[in-house]
Structure formats: C-alpha cells, structure tokens
Amino acid sequence: QVRLAESGGGSVQPGGSLRLSCVASGPKYGRACMAWFRQAPGKEREAVAVILSGDDIPYYADSAKGRFTISQDKDSNTVHLQMNSLKPEDTAMYFCAARPFACTMDRELFNRWGQGTWVNVSS
After folding, report:
1. What span, in angstroms and rounded, lies between the C-alpha atoms of 17 and 19?
2. Torsion angle of alpha carbons 4, 20, 107, 26, nearest 10°?
3. From CA 99, how far away is CA 42, in angstroms rounded?
4. Are 16 and 81 in contact (CB under 8 A)?
C-alpha cells in the first residue's frame, strides 16, 4: 500500500512561512492525485491544494490562493506545500492524501492519508 509521511509543521508567527513535505512510499499509482488537506479543531477536514502527477497543474482552495504553493519532486516522491503569509486561521493539522487517477478536492474520494503534521500560527 502507498504510505504517506508528512513533516515540516510547527509554530510560526502571523505573516511567517512554513514548508510542509509529504514523502510517498510503497507501490506507486501510475497516475496519482496528491493533495494537502487540513483540519482545525472542531471543524471538518478541508482541501487546501491538489496536484496531479504528470501535468503539474495545481488547484487551490480559495483560502490558499496567492499564499500557498503545492509542488512535487517526482525523483524523491515528495509533495511540498509552501505556505507564506500565514494567518491564525491557518492553524490546523495538515494531512497529505493520495488517490489514483483524477484530482478532486473531495476528501471522501481519497483513499490514502498520512498521519498529519500540526501547524500553529499565533503571536
């Protein structure tokens, strides 16, 4: 099975930056959608950004547009999420997710999840 491992979370002041990484191991999907979701305490898990292997075209949630960048390093099977201009409302557990074939921002359609990495934005 595909395994996903996130890293890079931590505490940062508003306006700061963090770079999250997700390493995928195990059998590879021939074509996969890689995604970042987040879940704040008491809230539902929501999509942040997705990217389809092969075409490198990213899609972002409105909350992430202009501040976050998703990218992938195919040689190392790693997906990154560069987060700039962080706000307190970005505080959440961030999860990496994967599914074969087409991309979507619907969390119910992802079948592989990492354990998450915590991001705290506060002064």
Report:
1. 7
2. -10
3. 26
4. no
Tokens coding 53: 């292997």
pLDDT at 30 over 70: no
Residue 27 is predicted with a pLDDT of 72
Bridge-based pairing of strands 92-100 and 117-121 is antiparallel
Query: Which residue carries 């990492």 as its tokens?
Result: 114
Specify the pairing of strand 78-83 against strand 18-25: antiparallel
Residue 69 has a CB neighbour count (10 Å cut-off) of 16
Q: Which of 102, 123, 115 is nearest to 20 (CA)?
A: 115
Tokens encoding 106? 């619907």
Residue 34: exposure state from Cβ atoms within 10 A (0-12, 13-18, ≥19):
buried
Would the CA dihedral through 87, 22, 32, 53 be positive or negative? positive
Q: Which two tokens stand for residue 118?
A: 């915590």
Give 29's pLDDT tier (boundaries 50, 70, 90): low
